[in-house]
Amino acid sequence: MKKVFYLNTCDTCRKIMAQFDLNGWQLREIKKEPITKEELAEMYKKTKSYEALFSRKSTQIKLRELDVKSLEEKDFKNLLLDHYTFLKRPVFLTDNEIFVGNDKKNVEDLKEFFGVN
């Protein structure tokens, strides 16, 4: 299994994905096809944290007047399943590994994984 979960309107996702050969990868645009409970469970197995998958930049946080500091793991899980913008992206998921988000370390790890300089 090789999947990339991304948002088509996200320039950062497109920029990161363009750096790699994604032939053989299933590309999932999360607005059109939201993540499933099973996929979230698979991501959780690799991160051991729903919070690690949660985007603190989601516009929904302000709209829903959420206090992120008071959220627990079950809250992060429910929010991730409720609205696509809560997923930190892009997410590259394989049978053995997961790469979440667009921070510099994650992108460097992805480059190493793909063998790109």
Structure characterization notes:
It is globular and about 40 Å long. Helix content is 38%, strand content 14%. Helix 1 links the parallel strand 1 and strand 2. The chain has a four-stranded mixed β-sheet with strand order 2-1-3-4, sandwiched between helices. It has 117 residues and is α+β, with helices and mostly antiparallel strands. It contains five helices and four strands, in the order βαβαααββα.
Summarize the structure.
The chain is of the alpha+beta class and 117 residues long.
Number of strands: 4
Strand content: 5-15%
The name of the CATH superfamily reads Glutaredoxin
Can you summarize the main beta sheet?
A: 4 strands, mixed
Strand order of the largest sheet: 2-1-3-4
The helix-strand sequence is: EHEHHHEEH
Please tell me the overall pLDDT. Answer: 97
Q: Nearest-angstrom radius of gyration?
A: 14 Å
Please bin the fraction of helical residues.
Answer: 25-40%
CATH class division: Alpha Beta
What would the CATH topology be? Glutaredoxin
The end-to-end span amounts to 24 Å
Secondary-structure-based class equals alpha+beta
Summed up, the helix count is 5
Low-confidence parts: none
Please give the oligomerization state of what you see: single chain
Domain module count: 1
